[in-house]
Q: What sequence folds into this?
């Protein structure tokens, strides 16, 4: 692969500037003129800046940039070590973002790598376009989002059988210079603050679904493309002191409407190759799940830390049931970390791209998803009822009773009333409000559902070898020594 | 017990009028002049009106009133049937309140009954005062709250050992006409919309803690009493359509400061009888837990209903994993209902007051608390990612893309876009935001913690009989026929 | 219903005598000449005697006999109280049998009641035959077993589609005086010690399956009927002191082969009425599950008792994690008891027969089944590693080191070495060997599988009412007051 | 470290021969003259031979021997790779032993390595003795067992406070040429088939416990040493066809009595250094837990394989609930494998010895222990009720009904009756009888209890760093960028 040296890394300011274009965004039915100054959405944009700011931060520079000088996000992983470095970068940036997912280069590069891994299958002219698009993004240090999930209509029907033919995004016109697409994607993360939108199919398809087998990339400011931003997890009316995690930053998803959008040929990566649709859809999700388990690490660490901090503040660190819950939370967090790192170390290199161990990635994601609600329960249990009955900092400053209130809030560990309130506010934000709910729903649904993860695990397991072993145990195979090869 | 006929049942309007007095309430550091018109707190007050409105509603009248003509809440339960009727009333009123706890007569009467059950232990003059206070509340159809949980300071120390002597509410002066108390209570529910506040000790005490062994009742508008309302679960900025459960109604807890509050003798129910403090504390909590499991029923029903509705809307009602989760949710809900009703039916009548079976009540409460987070997970799983990525009704009405959006949101079950959005908003409100978080924290901490429930269960179990049975099984007892008596 | 007075209650000796007939039983391929003296099977027979001995035991007499003077097992339940009495009888007899299921009149009467409940559907001549057979069993105080589960072959095919036409029991000849049947049933409990075998269909059937829709009753000693006894849970080589539960008693299941067995008309209860097969199959199972949850109570009590005894013996009763496990075990046991009793109390009387609440019975059974392995884990955890590394009583008596060994085994609670060993042996027997395994597999598979219970729960739940409630919460129904009726 | 070349590797026959000495073993109170021919214990001895036979098996040779030519068990791990090789060897030998632990070099070398890691702390003359003893074992290819767990008496008291001074093994005499010890150890695995017994303290000790701080090694045939073998998991009366796992092989634990046993100085490794007792006790257990999680892998693989085989045999491979259970079983097995391997890869090299990551080892062990009973439940669920109601091979061969029985047992997957019976017998052996119970109790109690594992996890976690992170999230630390270092 030829590579142009990056003209420059972008600064956060350059990133912000690049978002001030003709993009069509609506928030609660109102057109957003400038996403960087919108009272709510600007928090999402500012949050995304982290990906650019890291490269300017001396301590992060080595992690944020690869040897070739461009952002490490764009470095195609060639080995388990590269994957570990990518995972560490994602973990560090999410931690810097106070455990809120940071998805402005991660998810887009997941898609770029998945497309590249499919190049051999898709063939020309797609392979060349994919590579050129990759270089374009890398060399201009772009922010990319991915639109994949269709609205789906009746889930028991394939795209071409839907009563509404637009239930899945489809090609409505093929022109000599490109294609025209119509439909809508939901759950499109970080689209309002991206430069480019990569569009991928959401499922396997058959011959009748050829018009639905479509993948491409377009600038977010493309005519006909409308981004309807969800107000969920709004920062509106939240003070930084009461919502230390969710007031100053935001994730935003859009319902993304393609109203006969034209895509020039150079940006079309699949247009009718229905037999490859499923593999591309899965390929992206599998790569993306490794990103997912990496960015979950700061969240599970935060839950352990919150539980420890609450236990110490409340003077409960030695209570038997608290210790038990702490041990379980640590197991939860460290199992996720171990599986994530081990999946990287066990990567398979396919066509030069290192793919983390698919089964381990899915096991990690599944265990995270299945366990998060229990973890939230444990943190709430240790933190106590003040999570939802707290007084406010305005009360602490009130002349009539503020001083008394501060004194009453001093806890066993001599934590001052103010500090105790900060601890409570952080844990309330983390576990009980829209932020906690967002994380909980993401755990279950983002990057594929719990059931999808189980399917993958079942598909990845070497069932015949396992059956052979069981048959040997049952005396149904010759009783020779079993293979020494490590099992799975 | 002599009983004065109720002069009248109060209407909701009379109840509202009664709250317009000199009570000292602060919200975010600002004095609340009239709780019935305060932009946020009025939703709590209006919610509490349900208890009065029910008596005016023909279908509810039989349930809401007892034979003697006053509110059934004040009817001292004499049998399992009375407890079932009380439970049904609490369940019905909470359902009418859309699963938000309704605590304006329930909790107060729990305290009244617990005090009456303790009358024999406390003796005169307390017994007479308790009875007169009960009649006063009943005959004037009053709203009462209960302040029990102290701020506690260092939990490893008893009240008299605390560095801050006011960490537990205490008597600072004994006068001929009454007592003066100082301290603070937290988690005081529904105090802003109560007429009377009943104050109870929070734990067992020793001889040195005599000044902390104090119980009494005072009007909420008593001088020196300050109610600092928590803003958690604020209705501010929430539209009824997006937050159908939590926008139009609210629960409110206060941190309640007693700044040298005078309590006249007639209202003092315990003042130094430290040896009875623990029994009174527990007696109230045990009675209150029966109320708790009764008012949780509409919540668990709502979770089942929400899961069913989401499954039907999403066309997933026949999916294997969805059916499995539905079955588990039904088990969760119906086990709670069965245990609640069975606890009532197995009541013991003590001094004329029917006490629900303590072990069963605690088992019910514990299983509810341990299972709620898992139940929320199941509902979110079935409902899908739109819970946190939804567009809004403003978007549906937007001329540029609203019609398209509505069409895209039509689901498998032919649910219209608008209706689908309503379903999503309800489930988002129920499970992911401050309302869901409030229910989750309440599950764990309200009416005593999970650990307290385990302690009670262990204490209630007939350990020696169980040991005898195990010893008999082990051949360590004479091998005669075991008793036919039903076991526990 | 006309009723003949019982000529007499049978004694255990009469019962034993009645089993010495021409029945064809094989054990490990060898013909069993006399089941009452067979070295292994006699323990099953002796165990079954309990049902007869109880009636002779003064303390049990009231429970064991109904007012009409015959065994209470035969009393058709007319009310919740009758069901509670039946449940108490089953519980008491199982406890007397040291938690091993006692199924010599229980299961048979479950089938008799299910047949009677179906009489109206089956019509004459079946209804009359069923009633006469019921009176025959009752008046002669007979022991009955039930053969229901077919070998099934390929579970994805209905009976008439099976490659092997005998995969389900079927009518191979219809004669004027009766029918001839062929096939095999598995899991037939307690058949070797029964007088009569009641045969029921195992599933719903269609028109092509008419020959498989067959129900009847025959003496166990009928020609062509072969009982192949499973040796699982053999008493062979077990000493009473090491296996206090499973050495002196046994359950036995047979694979039951019908080799062209003739059934006279008077004993045929269904012969081709395929549309009623499913209802009869389910009707029996549902009634039988109530028996099941009743006979599980002594088992769960034994687990609690064993845990308490181990905790006390090991000096761990105050350890935090042990207390936690004890609380959970108590919850497990007492929830099962509460659900069982509440299901009886909520019985519906259908055609004069009281049917326990089907949903609650299934919830009880499901929770028992899902929780047993965890309960076994807790008991093993508290009991310690000696469960599988114990020395023996022979060692305690050994001159060279026995005295030393006894001294070393004295535990914290001053339990002697001998007593400690007895405790260990009982818990080992209860939780780790074939007895524990038997209970574990029964929990999952007996009286219908876990999945069957979930299906029933889903079917019983009032889904539409729940949906209506959820729709009302979501604002999709008129916002009037909801019904006051108690929910489900 | 100087190293003498091994004179020779021992053959299995040489190993057997070496066990025919004066060792004092009792089985059920009777002296065992020759352990290699005892009807029950010989199965344990033969099972242990696997460790020697592997080295003779061409496919295993590379795994079984290290570069220096001696058994790889004796190779001191210097790196994560060495630990992976050791883990692979343990896994392979346990698989060859049909999932029953083969602990005849594993456990002993764990102790040797732990002693060597303690050499610097213990100093001379102990360090030299330890090294010489290690070389002795290695160069003579010996089999070693470890006696650690004392009988403990009252667990709330330290050794010197026990009413019975022999509740912990102690030095009763110090002579110029050695020490004399008295006491008893329980749960001593594989001692009857070992050459040498290594004795270690079981807990931390104080100054008063100096006589209890004792470690040493002695030949099993030392005078005064009595091994009382537990009969649990006896092979007696079991046929290989019905018990394919547990009939031909056995583990055996002894209660090990030290009746004033003399230990020469050269074999004493600790004699009074009470302050090092806890570290040595833990050091061994921690090293041994890595062996434990390695030898559990074939067991969890067997559970997955058994579930798959049962699902296929029963024609249930596509059933939704079966797939769900299979996915969970795979997660259980593969998480254990990933944690085991990752713990090796994250080893710390301390004084030249590679120590697997302690936290990950404990998390792996804890998750295995907590999950095994659930895994057994799933396998039993999929396998069906025939697990405990099966007919026998004798029945299949019975002329009267054998042919019919075979035909009835043919399953959906066309598995023959014989093969189906073999599958059932294997799963019954694996999950329901003494073998399954043995594995279940071992899971909880062997290599330290569940609670001990939680303690270690809590101790290993970097609590202060986690607290700092939580404080930063709460705004209680300067809001600078957090460290990029990977977290724990």
A:
């Amino acid at each position: 692969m030829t590579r142009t040296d990056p003209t420059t890394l972008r600064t956060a300011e350059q990133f912000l500037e690049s978002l001030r274009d003709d993009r069509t965004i609506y928030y609660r039915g109102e057109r957003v003129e400038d996403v960087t100054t919108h009272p709510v959405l600007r928090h999402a944009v500012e949050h995304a800046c982290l990906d650019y700011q890291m490269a300017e931060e001396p301590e992060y520079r080595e992690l944020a940039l690869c040897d070739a000088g461009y952002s490490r996000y764009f470095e195609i992983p060639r080995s388990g070590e590269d994957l570990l470095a990518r995972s560490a970068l994602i973990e560090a940036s999410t931690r810097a973002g106070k455990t809120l997912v940071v998805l402005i280069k991660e998810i887009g590069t997941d898609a770029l790598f998945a497309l590249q891994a499919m190049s051999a299958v898709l063939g020309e002219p797609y392979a060349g376009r994919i590579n050129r698009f990759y270089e374009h993004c890398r060399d201009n240090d772009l922010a990319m989002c991915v639109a994949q999930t269709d609205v789906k209509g009746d889930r028991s029907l394939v795209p071409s059988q839907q009563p509404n033919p637009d239930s899945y995004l489809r090609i409505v016109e093929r022109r000599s210079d490109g294609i025209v697409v119509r439909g809508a994607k939901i759950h499109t993360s970080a689209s309002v603050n991206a430069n480019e939108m990569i569009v991928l199919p959401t499922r396997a398809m058959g011959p009748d679904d050829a018009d639905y087998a479509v993948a491409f990339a377009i600038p977010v400011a493309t005519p006909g493309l409308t981004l309807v931003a969800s107000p969920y997890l709004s920062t509106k009316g939240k003070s930084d002191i009461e919502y230390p995690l969710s007031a100053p930053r935001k994730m935003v998803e859009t319902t993304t409407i393609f109203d006969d959008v034209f895509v020039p040929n150079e940006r079309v990566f699949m247009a009718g190759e229905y037999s490859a649709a499923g593999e591309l859809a899965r390929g992206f999700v599998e790569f993306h799940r490794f990103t997912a388990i990496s960015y979950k690490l700061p969240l599970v660490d935060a839950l352990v830390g919150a539980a420890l901090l609450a236990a110490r503040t409340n003077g409960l660190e030695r209570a038997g049931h608290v210790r038990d819950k702490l041990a379980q939370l640590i197991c939860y967090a460290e199992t996720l970390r171990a599986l994530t790192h081990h999946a990287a170390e066990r990567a398979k290199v396919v066509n030069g791209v290192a793919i983390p161990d698919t089964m381990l990635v899915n096991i990690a994601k599944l265990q995270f998803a299945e366990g998060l609600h229990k973890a939230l329960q444990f943190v709430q249990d240790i933190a106590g009822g003040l999570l939802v009955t707290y007084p406010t900092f305005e009360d602490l400053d009130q002349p009539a009773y503020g001083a008394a209130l501060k004194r009453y809030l001093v806890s066993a560990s001599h934590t001052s009333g103010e500090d105790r309130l900060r601890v409570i506010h952080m844990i309330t934000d983390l576990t009980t409000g829209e932020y906690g709910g967002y994380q909980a729903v993401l755990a279950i649904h983002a990057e594929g559902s719990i059931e999808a993860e189980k399917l993958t695990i079942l598909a990845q397991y070497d069932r015949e070898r396992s059956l052979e072993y069981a048959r040997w145990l049952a005396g149904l195979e010759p009783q020779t020594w079993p293979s020494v090869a490590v099992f799975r």
